[in-house]
Write a sequence for this structure.
C-alpha cells in the first residue's frame, strides 16, 4: 500500500476514535435512590431543666447599733424574740449565779460569783418595749420600788397572779402610773440608764410588793422564743 494512503487511514482512525469519546453521546448515569421504606432516624434530645434557684440565705441577726460595752455571760448564743420587746436579740446575763463583775459575791453562789435577780437582754438603745401581758402601771414610790441601779425611769407592772414585772434601764416611758396596759401596748424604749454594760433590757419578776431579795426566775413571764431563721 502506498505510504500516503496509509497516513490518511491512520489519521481517519484517530479522528473517529476522538469523536467517540468527545463528540458522541454522553453515557447516562443512573442515580441510586436514597429513599427507603424505613422511617427517618430520630435524634434523641435530652432537655435539662434550668437549675433551681438557690434558697435565700437566712437573714443575719444584727443589731442596728450594737453597743461596744456589751459583755455576754451566758453560753447560749441564740437569738430570741419575746412579746416584751421588738426584734430578735441575744441574752447577756441569765438569772441566778454568774461571773459578771457587776454583782457582789453571794453566799448562794460558788466562789466569788454574784447573783443576778433578772434576765438581761442585749438590744440597741431605742428598741421598743411592749407589755407582754395585761397589767397596771405602778408608781415608783410604791412598796418594793427599784433603786437607782435600774435607771432613772424603770417601769413596773402589777400583773395577774400577784406578781410585779420590772423593766429596768428604760427611757421615754409612754405610760403613766395607774394606767391599765394591754398586751402589745408600747410602754417604753430600751436605754443604758443606770447600766454600766451598755443598752439592754433588765427583766425582773417579784411577788407583788416584794423587794429585790424576793425576785424569782422570770423566764416563765419573759416568754422567750428562739428565732431559728439564722
Amino acid at each position: 500500500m502506498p505510504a500516503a494512503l496509509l497516513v490518511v487511514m491512520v489519521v481517519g482512525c484517530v479522528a473517529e476514535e476522538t469523536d467517540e469519546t468527545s463528540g458522541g453521546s454522553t453515557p447516562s448515569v443512573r442515580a441510586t435512590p436514597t429513599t427507603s421504606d424505613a422511617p427517618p432516624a430520630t435524634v434523641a434530645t435530652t432537655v435539662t431543666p434550668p437549675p433551681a434557684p438557690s434558697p435565700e440565705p437566712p437573714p443575719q441577726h444584727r443589731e442596728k447599733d450594737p453597743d461596744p460595752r456589751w459583755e455576754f455571760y451566758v453560753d447560749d448564743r441564740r437569738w430570741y424574740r419575746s412579746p416584751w420587746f421588738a426584734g430578735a436579740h441575744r441574752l447577756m446575763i441569765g438569772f441566778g449565779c454568774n461571773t459578771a463583775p457587776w454583782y457582789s459575791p453571794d453566799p448562794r453562789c460558788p466562789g466569788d460569783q454574784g447573783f443576778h435577780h433578772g434576765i438581761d437582754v442585749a438590744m440597741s438603745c431605742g428598741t421598743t418595749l411592749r407589755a407582754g401581758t395585761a397589767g397596771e402601771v405602778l408608781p415608783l414610790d410604791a412598796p418594793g420600788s427599784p433603786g437607782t441601779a435600774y435607771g432613772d425611769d424603770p417601769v413596773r407592772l402589777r400583773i395577774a397572779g400577784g406578781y410585779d414585772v420590772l423593766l429596768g434601764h428604760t427611757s421615754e416611758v409612754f405610760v403613766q402610773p395607774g394606767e391599765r396596759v394591754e398586751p402589745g401596748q408600747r410602754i417604753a424604749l430600751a436605754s443604758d440608764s443606770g447600766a454600766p454594760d451598755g443598752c439592754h433590757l433588765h427583766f425582773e419578776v417579784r411577788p407583788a410588793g416584794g423587794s429585790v431579795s424576793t425576785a424569782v426566775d422570770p423566764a416563765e413571764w419573759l416568754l422567750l422564743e428562739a428565732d431559728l431563721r439564722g
Q: What stands out?
A: The two ends are 120 Å apart (CA to CA). Residues 82 and 224 are 5 Å apart (CA to CA).
